[in-house]
Amino acid sequence: MRLLDIGNERRLRRSIEKVDAFAYEVIQRRREEMRVKQASAAARSDILTAFMRAKDEEGGEKYSDEFLKDVCVNFILAGRDTSSVALAWFFWLLQRNAEVEEKILQEVKGILKDRGAAERGNMAAAMWYSGQRR
């Protein structure tokens, strides 16, 4: 079906094109940001910026946009999978330990009671029990 570009193959090709276009757009915006604001871009410490500053060990050339796109897509996909697996394990472990679940619920209820709706967005910073359980 790939040769005919129909059905699932067409949908897959279009989806890949959208993801690639998004990654290339991010790369171009970052490149422009680094060109215009070299001082503030230098302060960035993310993976894309690090790869954009680095050079290929074999040829000594800057990495191509295609290589940078592949790195971006790999990290997006890896982050999605690891987050979902981590959450699945968290909830499985939580349901097996009622005492911990109760302490977390009490902590969340206390934060929600003490804060207004506008302040609820950063609950993680106020959670003392979760932070102690490392």
From TrEMBL:
Alphabetized UniProt keyword annotations: Iron, Membrane, Metal-binding, Oxidoreductase, Transmembrane, Transmembrane helix
Pfam families in UniProt: p450
Superkingdom per UniProt: Eukaryota
Cellular component annotations (GO), alphabetically ordered: membrane
Catalytic activity: 4'-O-methylnorbelladine + reduced [NADPH--hemoprotein reductase] + O2 = (10bR,4aS)-noroxomaritidine + oxidized [NADPH--hemoprotein reductase] + 2 H2O + H(+); 4'-O-methylnorbelladine + reduced [NADPH--hemoprotein reductase] + O2 = (10bS,4aR)-noroxomaritidine + oxidized [NADPH--hemoprotein reductase] + 2 H2O + H(+)
Keyword match Heme: no
SUPFAM superfamilies named among the record's database cross-references: Cytochrome P450 (SSF48264)
Places the protein is found: Membrane
InterPro entries: Cyt_P450, Cyt_P450_sf
Example of a GO MF term: heme binding
The enzyme's E.C. designation: 1.14.19.50
Primary site of residence: membrane
Membrane topology: Single-pass membrane protein
Family according to the record: Belongs to the cytochrome P450 family.
PANTHER family named among the record's database cross-references: CYTOCHROME P450 (PTHR24296)
Full protein name: noroxomaritidine synthase
Naturally occurring in which organism (per UniProt): Vanilla planifolia (Vanilla)
Lineage of the organism: Eukaryota, Viridiplantae, Streptophyta, Embryophyta, Tracheophyta
